[in-house]
Amino acid sequence: MRNVGARAPGRGGREVMPMNAPERWPSLPLEEWGDTYETLHRWTQIVGKVRTACTPWINHSWHTTLYLTARGLTTSPIPYGDRTFTIDFDFLNHRLEIESSDGGQRELALRPEAVADFHDRLFAALGDLDLSVAIHGRPNEVEDATPFREDRAHSAYDPDYANRLWRILSSTERVFTEFRAEFIGKNSPVHFFWGAFDLAVSRFSGRAAPPHPGGVPNLPDWIAREAYSREVASVGFWPGGGAHLFPFFYAYVYPEPDGYPAREVSPSEAFYSTEMREFVLPYDAVRQAESPEARVREFLQSTYDAAAELGDWDRASLERDLDPRRSANSPSAS
Hints:
- The chain has helices spanning 30-54, 115-128, 159-181, 221-227, 283-287, 292-310, 315-318, and strands spanning 8-9, 15-16, 67-68, 72-74, 78-80, 83-90, 95-100, 105-109, 191-193, 198-208, 230-238, 248-254, 271-273, 278-282.
- It is of the alpha+beta class.
- It has two domains: 32-150; 159-318, no CATH class.
- It is globular, with a radius of gyration of 20 Å.
């Protein structure tokens, strides 16, 4: 919600890429995969709503999200009576996999097809596994809220671009996880919000926030108000849309402290978007950098510094300078 190349250790501790490894930060021009993006967005909403329907409510809608895997995205285990089940997107072999804790399995090919057909195939497969789930049948956080069972306008699936997206999310997740590890206050997992179709991680000051104004397209205001009920600084990656038709990293704080939009952040390509009320770093500025990871970290840290300093966060009690495994006073990790 928001306002594949694994490395192998080389000699001397260096990391080297395996031969023929795919690019970790591939290009993702919105104009070339926009139709796939819109279709896949709705597919992930359907799967995410299945998780939401079966999972106890967790603050800030964290019970709804998807997570990165070594092949795509997963719901993680979903409770269902005395069983659990998972639904996974595999963007290597391009299939949707459903597995239940009693050994049941179903597999659906990811292919060009209407949202309505994807919906019906998924729920038929769930029924085969004796998993009866009812979901809210319309998409959230998009202007076109055509019911899933009626949506035949969105039917594209380009496997190359689905795989590119997953590789970017995987690379981003690594950086976000390192950033998250430095914060000992309340913070979120690194997770994928299917509502807005973004990967995000959030830090909290520990203080309550004023009621959010709501107004998110096709999302009840009470959900937005619960999600933003505590002071929060969030960062994420979004494939683009609206005022900015290019993929980008973003950072925002709620409530926004005085002076935040005018704060100078880095790297130099980053800017404050008045339309979105958040800092934006174009993805291409990261992808083309000598060290994309360092460029993302620079953005995460500088925007957090702006939020925490201007918002008067108690940084001494919220941040950690040292991994305890590296402390001279801690026993060596086993």
